[in-house]
Amino acid sequence: MNQNPKIWIINGPNLNLLGEREPGIYGSQTLADIEKSLQDQAQEYPEKPVLSFYQSNSEGRLVDWIQAARHEADFVLLNAGAYTHTSVALRDAIVGSQVQAIELHLSNVHAREDFRKTSYISAVCVGQIAGFGADSYHLALEAAIRLYRKNSNI
Amino acid sequence: MNQNPKIWIINGPNLNLLGEREPGIYGSQTLADIEKSLQDQAQEYPEKPVLSFYQSNSEGRLVDWIQAARHEADFVLLNAGAYTHTSVALRDAIVGSQVQAIELHLSNVHAREDFRKTSYISAVCVGQIAGFGADSYHLALEAAIRLYRKNSNI
Amino acid sequence: MNQNPKIWIINGPNLNLLGEREPGIYGSQTLADIEKSLQDQAQEYPEKPVLSFYQSNSEGRLVDWIQAARHEADFVLLNAGAYTHTSVALRDAIVGSQVQAIELHLSNVHAREDFRKTSYISAVCVGQIAGFGADSYHLALEAAIRLYRKNSNI
Amino acid sequence: MNQNPKIWIINGPNLNLLGEREPGIYGSQTLADIEKSLQDQAQEYPEKPVLSFYQSNSEGRLVDWIQAARHEADFVLLNAGAYTHTSVALRDAIVGSQVQAIELHLSNVHAREDFRKTSYISAVCVGQIAGFGADSYHLALEAAIRLYRKNSNI
Amino acid sequence: MNQNPKIWIINGPNLNLLGEREPGIYGSQTLADIEKSLQDQAQEYPEKPVLSFYQSNSEGRLVDWIQAARHEADFVLLNAGAYTHTSVALRDAIVGSQVQAIELHLSNVHAREDFRKTSYISAVCVGQIAGFGADSYHLALEAAIRLYRKNSNI
Amino acid sequence: MNQNPKIWIINGPNLNLLGEREPGIYGSQTLADIEKSLQDQAQEYPEKPVLSFYQSNSEGRLVDWIQAARHEADFVLLNAGAYTHTSVALRDAIVGSQVQAIELHLSNVHAREDFRKTSYISAVCVGQIAGFGADSYHLALEAAIRLYRKNSNI
Amino acid sequence: MNQNPKIWIINGPNLNLLGEREPGIYGSQTLADIEKSLQDQAQEYPEKPVLSFYQSNSEGRLVDWIQAARHEADFVLLNAGAYTHTSVALRDAIVGSQVQAIELHLSNVHAREDFRKTSYISAVCVGQIAGFGADSYHLALEAAIRLYRKNSNI
Amino acid sequence: MNQNPKIWIINGPNLNLLGEREPGIYGSQTLADIEKSLQDQAQEYPEKPVLSFYQSNSEGRLVDWIQAARHEADFVLLNAGAYTHTSVALRDAIVGSQVQAIELHLSNVHAREDFRKTSYISAVCVGQIAGFGADSYHLALEAAIRLYRKNSNI
Amino acid sequence: MNQNPKIWIINGPNLNLLGEREPGIYGSQTLADIEKSLQDQAQEYPEKPVLSFYQSNSEGRLVDWIQAARHEADFVLLNAGAYTHTSVALRDAIVGSQVQAIELHLSNVHAREDFRKTSYISAVCVGQIAGFGADSYHLALEAAIRLYRKNSNI
Amino acid sequence: MNQNPKIWIINGPNLNLLGEREPGIYGSQTLADIEKSLQDQAQEYPEKPVLSFYQSNSEGRLVDWIQAARHEADFVLLNAGAYTHTSVALRDAIVGSQVQAIELHLSNVHAREDFRKTSYISAVCVGQIAGFGADSYHLALEAAIRLYRKNSNI
Amino acid sequence: MNQNPKIWIINGPNLNLLGEREPGIYGSQTLADIEKSLQDQAQEYPEKPVLSFYQSNSEGRLVDWIQAARHEADFVLLNAGAYTHTSVALRDAIVGSQVQAIELHLSNVHAREDFRKTSYISAVCVGQIAGFGADSYHLALEAAIRLYRKNSNI
Amino acid sequence: MNQNPKIWIINGPNLNLLGEREPGIYGSQTLADIEKSLQDQAQEYPEKPVLSFYQSNSEGRLVDWIQAARHEADFVLLNAGAYTHTSVALRDAIVGSQVQAIELHLSNVHAREDFRKTSYISAVCVGQIAGFGADSYHLALEAAIRLYRKNSNI
After folding, report:
1. Structural domain count of chain C
2. Fewer Cβ close by (within 10 Å): the C or N end of chain D?
C-alpha cells in the first residue's frame, strides 16, 4: 500500500445544481468549487491521494461507477443525495463491490423531512458525515486518509 | 413577461405506451394524439404558449429535464407516472430548480393500489389534477395559463 | 342530453369564511366572488350550464344535498373542506347517489398537515383538482364540461 | 403457436457482478456461465426456445426492455434484483406490456433484510422462483416451457 | 316491566336511500318496506312491542335521539351507517344515555373496505348483527325481545 | 329445495367448557343445554330443519367438518372461538367448501382484547351475530331459516 | 380593550347530559349548575367578563358558533367533547376565525380509551385544561382572564 | 384537614434555564420569578398553602422527591419537562407514592414535535394544564386549592 | 449418496379439496392427479427418486411428519397452505428437523390478500416456488433433484 | 390442601425433539432426561408433589389437557413452544380452566426473532421463567411449590 | 471458581417503596425483608454465596453499579423496575461489562400496560423471571446458583 | 472571536469503559488515550483550541454540563452514547443552551439494532459523524475548527 491512495468522490442527483439550488440549505459553493478545494486539501497530505470526481442524476450510472470503483479506488466518498433514501441498488452495489464507502451529506438530513431519515446505504458504509455543508466533503476526505493510514499499519 | 409563456410537458415511465396500455384505465389516445390536441388548445389562448414535449422511462433523464427547465420554461406539466410514488430525486429536482410544476395523472390514483397514494412530489408542486384521462393534460395547460396571467398581473 | 347541463357546486365547512380566513392559504376572494366568476365562465360555454351553489358547515346537510343532486344535477363540484378527511357518510352519499362528483380544493392539501392526506372521498369521485386557489373551481367547471361532452358523444 | 417460443431473460442491477459479488450468497457462476448453461438447457426442449439476454443497472433501461418484449417475446424471465423492492415503474411496465413474466431470485430473499420482503412486481408476474442459486434460472426456463405448452393446448 | 317494550329503530346517513342505493349490496327494499315488515313481526310477539322509527343524515340529530331514548325506549336498534366508523359522539351518547343498543348492518361490513372494520360503537352496544340484508333488522328485533324476556325474568 | 334444511352447528375450542368457564362472560348454560334449546326452536319452524352438533378443540378437525359440510349441510352456524382470530385454514375451508356459514359469538368480541378484533373468517361468512350469549345461537338459527326461505323463493 | 371581555363557553355533544351521564366520570353537576357557578366567578373579577353559553350535539352548529365568535367574543372556552377526537372542521373553524380558544375537558382524557388521545384541536388552541371535573371550566375562565390582562398590558 | 395544605412544586430538566431559554416558547420569567409570584398568590387563599420548590435535571432525583412527597405534601404540581415523554420511573413514583399530582407545562406541548404528544405521566395525574406560560403554574395552584376544598368537604 | 433420493411431498389444510375448490385459483387437477403426474416425472430422472405423499388439515400432524422426515427423507416439498401464514410450529419443526424443505404454492400468494404475504416458513426453507398451479409441484421436484445432484458433487 | 400437590408439565410442539434439535439453543438433554431430573427434584420437597408429563405437537391436544387439568392438577408448568406466539385457544383454555399456569421457555425468547416477542399466554399465567435451558423446568417446579406453600398459608 | 460466588442484587427506581407501594401488585414485604430472606436462602447453599444489595432511583447510578460489578460479581440479579422499558444505557452497561445478569420482576409485566412489554434489557440477560412477587428474587438466586454450578462443571 | 476557541468534549454512559468494552465494536483505545490524542491534534491548529473533557453515566449530569457549556464553550462535541436514543432532556438542553453541538459516535449506529436508529438529538445538532472509531472524535474536532473559522469570517 505504498502507492498514492485513489479516492473517488461520487455525487448523486441534483448535486450538479450546488451553489444555485436552495443556498440556504446547501451553501453557495458549486460542485466545481468543492472539487478544487478538495484537490488543495489532497495536496497537503503526504500520501498525495489521487481524487476522481463523478456526478450523475441517474441511479444506474451511480451503480456503474461504484462497481467500477472496486478495481480502481481505495475509497469512495459517496453523496448519494436523494437516492440515499430510495435505492437498494446502490446498497447492493456497495456490498457487491466491497469498496470502502463513506456516506456524506451537505445538510443535516436528520433535521429535515421524515423520509430523509431512512437510508438504505448507511448500514453498508464505513461511517457517515452530515450537516457541515461543503466541509462534509473535507471531513470525509480526512476520514478516508485516516482509514488509509490505519489499514497501512496493519 | 410579455413573451409567450414556455411550457414543458414532461412524461415519465410507461407513458410512451399510452393508447396501447390498459385502455380501460388510461384511455385510447396515444401520447402523440394528446400532444397534437394540446397544440390545438395552445393556439386558442391569446398568450400563444410554446409547448415542448418530453418522455423518458429513466428517472435520471427526468431529473435532467426538470433541471434544464429552470432556465427554459415558465411551467412544467409533470406526469411523473410511477416515479411519483418512489422518487425523492424528482422532488429535489423540482425544489432545486424552482420551476412551477403542475402534477397530473390520467387515472384517479386515489382509487387504485395503496402504494399509489404516496407521492413525493405533490407537496412541492403548485397543484394536482388527476382522474380525467387525457383531459388531465388539457386542464393542466389551462391551469398553467391561469397561473401565468395571475403572475403577470402582480 | 341536449338540455343544459346542471352543475351543483357544493361547499363544506368554513368555506363561508373565504376571503377572510387565512388569506395566505386560501386567497382573498369570497365565496360570492367565486360564484359570480363561475357564472361568467359558464356563459362562455355553448352548453350554457346551469349552476347552483350550496354551502354548509353541517356534514348531514351536505349528505342531504348530494342525495338530492342525484335527480337534479349532472355533476357535483365538491369542495368538502375538512369533511374530506373524516367523512365516510359523504363517501357513501356519493356512491349511493351515483352522481358524477369532482373533488376540488383551494390549497395544495398534500403540502399541509398529515391528516389532510387522508381522503375518504377521492376514490369515489371522478377526479381531483387541488392547489390552484379560486382557479380550482374554474378548472373543475371546465372538467365537468369536458366530461359532459364526452358523455354526449357516446 | 407452432413457432419457437421466444424467451427474454432480463437481469437488473448488480447482476453483472455475479460470480464475483458475495459468492456466499449468490454463487460462483458468472452471468455468462448461466447464459451458456441456459442455452444448453434450451436445446433439450423439443420446442427449441430462442433465448435473449439483457442486463442493466438502470431502471429506465429495464422498463424499455420490458416494453420492447411485448412485441418480441412470449415470456420474460425477470431477475429485477434490487429494483424488485423499489420500482413501481417496472410493475407498470409489466402490466402495460402484458408480457407473461416470471420473477426469479438467486437467493432466498425472504431470509434476508426486511426491505427485501417488499416486492412491487410479484403481484403482476405469473409466479416466483427464489432461493436456488443459478438453478433459479433453470427452473424459471422450465416453468416458461410448461406455461407455453399449457397455452398451446388451449 | 309488564308494559309493552318500547323499541326505537334509529337509522343513520344514507339509509333513506335504501332500495335505490347500490341494490347489489343493500337489497331492493326501501326503509318504509322494512318498517312495515318490522311492524308485522312486532305483532306476532305476545309482548306487543311498540316500535318508533328515526332516520337522519346528521350525526348531531342521531345523538339527540339516542339521548331522548334514555327516558323513552327500552331498546335501540341502531344502524349508524357510515357514522359507525367515525363517530365518538354516538359512542358517548350510548354510554351516557345508558340505553341498551343493538348494532346492526345490512351488509357484511367485514368484507368491505378496511375503514369499515373500525367501529366506535361496537364496544358499547350489547351485540352486533351484520350481513343479512333487511333480515338484520328482523334479527335485531328478535334479539331485543329475547333480551327483554331475560331482563324480565331477573 | 323441498327437503328439510340441514344445518350444522360447529363449535371451536373451549366451547365444551360452556356453563363452567367464566360464566360472567359466557353465561351459565352448557353446550348441551344450548343444543337442546336449539332443537326445541327447530321444531317450531314449518321447515323442520335438521340440526347436527360438533365441537372440537382442534383446528384441523374443524377444517375437516367444514369440508364435510359442503355435501351434507345447507348452512353452517360457526362459533369458531379463539380460532376466529388466528386461523386462515378455517377461512380457506369455508371458501373452498362453498358452504353458507354464519359466524356467531356468545360475547361481544368487540368489547374485549384487541386481538379479538381481528377475524379471518368474517369476510367469508354470510354475516355475524355476536354478544347475545346463548341467544346468539338462536338468532343464528333464525337467520339461517330466513336465508333458506329467501333462497327457496328465487 | 377597556370594555368587558366577552367570553363564549361552547360545549359539544352529550354535555347536555351532564349530571346525569356517568357521574363517576363527569361529576354530578348539570351544565346549568356549572353555568351559574361560572357567572358567580365572573362577578368576582374587576373586568366583569360577559359570559355566553352554547351547547349542541351537532358538529356543524359548533362550527357556526366558533365562526360567529370571531366578531363577538374575545375568548372561547371550548369543551368539544367527542368531536375533539374526530373533527378537522372544528380545527379549521378555530384557525379560520382567529379566536383565542382554550380547550377544556371534565375528565382526564389521557387516562381513558386510546382514541381519546388524538386531538385535532389541541394544536390550534392556546392551551388545555383537563381532568378537574367542573373546575376545569373555572380554571379555563381564570386562564382567559389572565390572558386578557396580559394582552391588555401589551 | 384543618392544617395549611402543603404543596410541592417539582420542576424537571432544563427548567432552571427559564427566562433565558427560548423565550419565544417559554416566556421571559425565571423560575425564581415564578416562585415569588406563586408565593404571592398563595397568600391570597384563606387556606394559606405552604409551598416548597424543587428543580433537578436528574430523573432519579425527581423520583426521590415524589417519593418524599407522599408523607410531606398534599399535592404535587409537576412540570416534568422532557421526562414527561420518556420516564416510566416518574409514573411509577406517582402511583407508588399515591400523591395527588397535577401535570403542567409552560408551552402547548400538543402544538410541538410529535414525540411531545406521548406522556407517561398524564394518565396517573389528576389533570393537566398546558400552554399558558408561567400562568400554567398559577392555574395549577388554583386547581390544587380547589381540589383541597373538595376533599375537605367530603 | 448413491441411493435413490427420498422425497416427501407434504400438503397442508384444504389441499385435499384440490380440483373441487375454487378451480379458477387452484386448477382442476385433484391431489391424486398431481401425485400420479409427479410419479411419472420421477421415473424420468436417472436417480429414480422415491416419492411419498402426505396431506392433513391438522397443524400438529404436519409437524409430526416434518419431524419424521428428518430420518427418512432427503427433501421435503412443502405446500403448507394456510399454515404458511400462521404457524411458527411448522417453522420450528423444519429448523429442528434440519430437513431440506422447498416451499411451494399453487397460486401466486403475492397477488392475493395481505395476510398471505406473511410467511413464517419461507426464511427456513431452501427456496420458494409459487404461482404455477400444479406445475409448482413439478418445478419443486426438479429443484430437489438439482439440489441432490449439487450435494452429491461436493 | 394437605394432599400432595399435583403438578402437570405440559410441553408443546417440537419439544419431543429436545436434545437432538439445535442443541446450541436448546441444550443436549432430552425431554425424558428432564422428566427424570424433575422427579428427583420433586422427591426433595416435603410436600412430595406428584408430577405428570405431557407433550404434543397438536394445539387442540394441548387445549384438551389444559381443560383436563382444571379438575386434576394444582399447577400447570407450560412450555407451549411455538404456540406461545400464535395460540389464542391456549390462552382461552388457561382462563377458562382457571388453572394456575407457569409459563416457561428453555431459550431466552426475547433475544430471538421478533415474532417470538408476542405471547398470547403470558398475561394469563402467574409468571414466566425463560432462558435457563433445562433449569427453566426446575425453577418452574420450585416456583410452583412456593406458590403452593403461600396458598396453603392463607 | 472454588471461591464463594459473589452475587449482586441491583434494584431500580421505586423499589425502595416495596411493601408500601401498591401492595396488591407488589406484595407487602419491604426490600429489607426480601434481603434478609435472601440471606437465609443463601446460607442453605453449600457454595455459600456472598450477596450485596443496591437500590437507586437514578439510571446513571445503576449503570455505575453494573459497570462495577464486572470486576466484583459473578452474577447480577437485576430488577431494573421502570428503567427496564426505557433504558438503552443499562443494556449497554450489561453488554459492556460482560456480567451475567438475570432479569427479574415482582409482577407479571406482561399482564400490565403495553409499554411494559418493551424491554431493552431482556435480550442481553441470561434469562427472565417475572410474576412471582418476592419469590422472583428467590428463584433468581436459585437460577444463579444453578448457572454457577454449570459453569464450574465445564 | 480572536480568543482560543473553547471546546467541550462530553461523553455519555458507558464510554468510561472504552478500550475494555466490546473492542470489536468500539476499538481498543481508552477514553484517556483519545483525550491525549485530541490534545495533540489541538496543538496543531493555529487557533490553539482549549479542550475540556467530561464523562458521566447520568443523564441529569450531562444536561447540567450542556447547560453550563452555554456560557463557557464555543462548541460541544457530544457522544451521548445510549442517551442519544432515549433522551428528550438532552435535546432540550442543547436547544435551550444554544450551544453549537456536534453529534459523534464511535460505531456506525445505522448498522446496529433498530432502536439505535432513533436519535432525539440529531435534529438539534449542527451535524453528525459516526462510524470511524476513535477517529470520530478527531473528525469532530476538525469540524468544530472549520465551523469556528467560518463563523469568524462572517
Report:
1. 1
2. C
